[in-house]
Write a structure and sequence with these properties.
The complex is a heterodimer. Chain A contains ten helices and ten strands. Chain A is an alpha/beta fold. The longest helix of chain A has 18 residues. Chain B is globular. The N and C termini of chain B lie far apart (about 70 Å). In chain B, strands 1-2-3 form a three-stranded antiparallel β-sheet, with no helix packed on it. In chain B, strands 4-5 form a two-stranded antiparallel sheet. Chain B has a domain of about 220 residues. The chains are: A alpha/beta, B mainly alpha.
Chain lengths: ~240, ~350
C-alpha cells in the first residue's frame, strides 16, 4: 500500500531521516518507534507532504507522492493526527470536522448541512457529539485528541498516520483512546502507521514495528523480535543493559 | 373563515387552510431585516441636510470597502494593509476611460472589473509567498507606489487636483434627489456586497475559509485546496473594492488619488474592520457609520481633529468589550458563527 524507498531528508547539515525504507500492506498496523529525535515525526511529515524528501521515493497505492502537495495526498487517502493537537481554535468541534468531510475527497455537491450531518457521525464515533458546539479552544487534551481523530477520519483515509496519541493522557483516557483506534480500524478498514512512546501499548497493538535511531532504520520485525533485539535495547537503555541481557 | 388570534409571542392569522404567523417577540425578529429597514428609512430624517446625506453615503461606501476586505482577511489568512489599492485602480480606470474615450458607465464598470481582476491575479501569488507581516508590508507599499505614480505622470492622472467631470450615473433636476438617489445606490451596493460575502461565509466554502484562517497547514493536510482558495479570496474582494472606486467616480464625479490612496484612508478602513467587529462581516456597517460620524463631528474642532481622531479610535479599540468591536456589544455567542481571530504575525 505505502512504500517508502531509501528516503532521506536533511535540515542543514543534520540528517533527520537518512536512507529509510519500509512498506505497509493493506489492513496492517505498523508501529514506528525510536528514541527522541530519531526522525519519526519527520518521517510522517515526509509521507504527508509537509516536507519534500531530498532523496528516495514514497509511493502510495502505486502513485508516487514524493513531491505532491499535502492536499492532494490527503485526497488520495492519507490522513494524520498531530503530536501536539492543532485544532482550529475559534471553530466549533462540528465545523472543524466538517472541513475534513467537505475537502477530504471530491464532493462538489455537498452542502454545509450535509457535511455537518456526516461530521456529527464522526463526532459521535469518538464520543464528542455532546461537545459539537463547543469551540475547540475550550476542549480538554483528551477531547482535542479525539477531535483530531474525528477530523482525520472525516477525510475518509485509507492510511491513518497517528503521532503519539497517548502522550499526556492518563491511563484511563489512554485505554479509551486505544479502544477508539481499534474500533476505527475495524469499522473503517484503515491501515495505521503509529508513532508511539508508550511501549506497552505499541507492543500489543502493532503487528510489525519499525525502529528508527538518528534518522536511520535500525530494525524491523514483530514486537517479540523487536523486544529481544539487543541493538534496540542498546538504543533505548544503553550498552550496559544490552550486555546484561 | 378568517381568523385572527393573539398569543403571547405571536399573532396567528388563518385564512381557509392557510396559516400565517408573525412573531412579535423582539428576540425572534429577523435582525438583518430590521437593520436594512432602519438604513432605508434613515434619509427621511436627514434628507433636509445634504451634508449628512453625503456623510452616510460615504459611510456606506466605507462599509462596501470594509466588507470585502474582511472576506479577504479571513480567506487569505493575511492582513491586507492596502485595501485602497484596488479602489484607486478601479477608480482611475473608470475615470480615464470615461474622460478620454467617452465610455459610458456600463463599459467603464466592465473595464474596472477586468483591470482590477487582472492586476489582482498578477499579484495573487504574494498570498502564497509572503507570510504574515511580510504580506502586510508588501500590501502597505503598493498603494503608496501607485500614489507616487499618479504624481509622476501628473498629466494623465492629475495626482494633486484629481480628475473631474466624469459622466454621472443618474442625474435628476433637483439636487436633493441626486443626493437621495446616490445614498440608495450606495446602500444597495453595500447590501449586495454584504449578501454575497455572507453567502460565501455561511456556505461550505466559508468553513474551509475559516480553516485556512485558523491554520493553513492543517487545513492543507485535511485536503483544503489552500492555494486555489487564497487566489480567489484575494482576487474577488479586490474586484469588489474596484467597483466601489468606479461608483465613486460616477457619483461624486471627481477622483483624486491623493484622497483615496494615502495611509490615512487605509487606516480608516482597517479601523472600521477592527472596531466594527474583528473582520466579522456585519460589524463593518456599524463600524463604518461610527467612523464617519466621529470623523464628521470632529471636523468642527478645526486642525486639532487630526490629533483627536486617532485618540478616539484608540479609546474605541481599548474599551470595546472582549476585543470584539462594536459587533461584540450586540453579538450573542452563537458558536456556529465563526468569529475570526486575526493574527498579523504567523510562522
Amino acid at each position: 500500500m505505502l512504500r517508502v524507498a531509501n528516503v532521506s531528508k536533511r535540515f542543514g547539515g543534520l540528517y533527520a531521516v537518512s536512507d529509510v525504507s519500509f512498506s505497509l500492506n493493506e489492513g496492517e498496523v505498523i508501529g514506528l518507534i525510536g528514541p527522541n529525535g530519531a526522525g519519526k515525526t519527520t518521517m510522517l511529515n515526509l509521507i504527508c507532504g509537509v516536507y519534500q524528501a531530498d532523496a528516495g521515493a514514497i509511493e502510495f497505492l502505486g502513485q508516487n507522492i514524493t513531491a505532491m502537495p499535502s492536499n492532494r495526498i490527503c485526497r488520495l487517502g492519507v490522513s494524520r493526527t498531530y503530536q501536539i493537537p492543532q485544532p482550529f481554535q475559534a471553530m466549533t468541534a462540528l465545523s472543524g470536522v466538517a472541513v475534513g468531510v467537505i475537502n477530504g475527497k471530491k464532493r462538489p455537491h455537498m452542502s454545509l448541512s450535509d457535511a455537518a450531518l456526516e461530521a456529527s457521525y464522526y463526532l459521535e464515533f469518538v464520543g464528542l457529539f455532546a461537545k459539537r458546539d463547543t469551540l475547540a479552544r475550550h476542549l480538554t487534551l483528551y477531547e482535542l485528541r479525539m477531535l483530531e481523530l474525528a477530523r482525520a477520519l472525516a477525510t475518509t483515509p485509507k492510511l491513518l498516520l497517528i503521532d503519539e496519541v497517548m502522550a499526556g493522557l492518563n491511563p484511563a483516557e489512554s485505554s479509551q483512546a486505544l479502544e477508539m483506534i481499534w474500533s476505527a480500524q475495524e469499522q473503517f478498514g484503515i491501515t495505521i502507521l503509529w508513532i508511539e512512546h508508550v511501549m506497552k501499548i505499541i507492543m500489543s497493538a502493532a503487528q510489525r514495528i519499525v525502529v528508527l535511531q538518528y534518522g536511520k532504520k535500525i530494525a524491523e520485525g514483530t514486537p517479540q523480535e523487536i523486544a529481544a533485539n539487543p541493538i534496540i535495547i542498546e538504543a533505548y537503555l544503553g550498552g550496559r543493559y544490552a550486555k546484561a541481557e | 373563515m378568517v381568523n385572527l388570534e393573539f398569543r403571547r409571542d405571536r399573532v396567528l392569522f388563518r385564512w381557509g387552510d392557510q396559516k400565517y404567523e408573525w412573531v412579535i417577540e423582539p428576540r425572534y425578529w429577523r435582525n438583518p431585516a430590521i437593520g436594512v429597514a432602519l438604513l432605508a428609512i434613515l434619509p427621511i430624517f436627514v434628507a433636509p441636510y445634504p451634508h449628512i446625506l453625503t456623510m452616510i453615503t460615504t459611510a456606506n461606501l466605507y462599509a462596501a470597502i470594509a466588507i470585502p476586505l474582511s472576506l479577504q482577511i479571513i480567506g487569505t489568512a493575511r492582513l491586507n494593509f492596502g485595501p485602497q489599492l484596488y479602489l484607486g485602480i478601479g477608480g482611475y480606470t473608470a475615470a480615464l476611460l470615461n474622460l478620454h474615450f467617452g465610455l459610458s458607465p456600463v463599459f467603464t464598470l466592465l473595464a474596472a472589473i477586468l483591470v482590477c481582476g487582472g492586476i489582482a491575479l498578477l499579484l495573487s501569488p504574494t498570498t502564497w509567498i509572503a507570510k504574515g507581516l511580510y504580506f502586510s508590508l508588501i500590501t502597505l507599499i503598493l498603494p503608496l507606489t501607485f500614489l507616487d505614480v499618479t504624481f509622476i505622470y501628473g498629466d494623465i492622472f492629475r495626482g494633486e487636483v484629481g480628475l473631474v467631470g466624469m459622466s454621472p450615473l443618474l442625474s435628476f433636476k433637483k439636487v436633493t434627489w441626486n443626493y437621495l438617489a446616490y445614498f440608495y445606490l450606495s446602500l444597495l451596493l453595500m447590501l449586495v456586497y454584504l449578501w454575497v460575502c455572507d453567502k460565501i461565509v455561511r456556505s461550505r466554502f466559508g468553513v474551509s475559509m475559516a480553516a485556512i484562517n485558523e491554520n493553513e497547514d492543517v487545513a492543507r493536510m485535511m485536503g483544503v485546496q489552500v492555494d486555489r482558495y487564497k487566489v480567489f479570496y484575494y482576487v474577488f474582494p479586490s474586484i469588489l473594492s474596484g467597483i466601489v472606486g468606479w461608483f465613486i467616480v460616477h457619483t461624486f464625479r471627481t477622483f483624486a488619488g491623493v484622497t483615496y490612496l494615502p495611509l490615512e484612508f487605509m487606516t480608516k478602513i482597517l479601523i472600521i474592520v477592527i472596531v466594527g467587529g474583528r473582520a466579522f462581516l456585519y460589524g463593518a456597517i456599524p463600524g463604518a457609520y461610527l467612523i464617519s460620524i466621529v470623523e464628521d463631528s470632529l471636523r468642527a474642532f478645526g486642525p486639532i481633529n487630526y490629533v483627536l481622531f486617532p485618540l478616539v479610535l484608540i479609546a474605541l479599540i481599548v474599551f470595546l468589550p472582549r476585543g470584539e468591536g462594536l459587533w461584540g456589544l450586540y453579538h450573542k455567542r452563537h458558536h456556529r458563527d465563526y468569529y475570526p481571530a486575526l493574527h498579523v504575525r504567523r510562522d
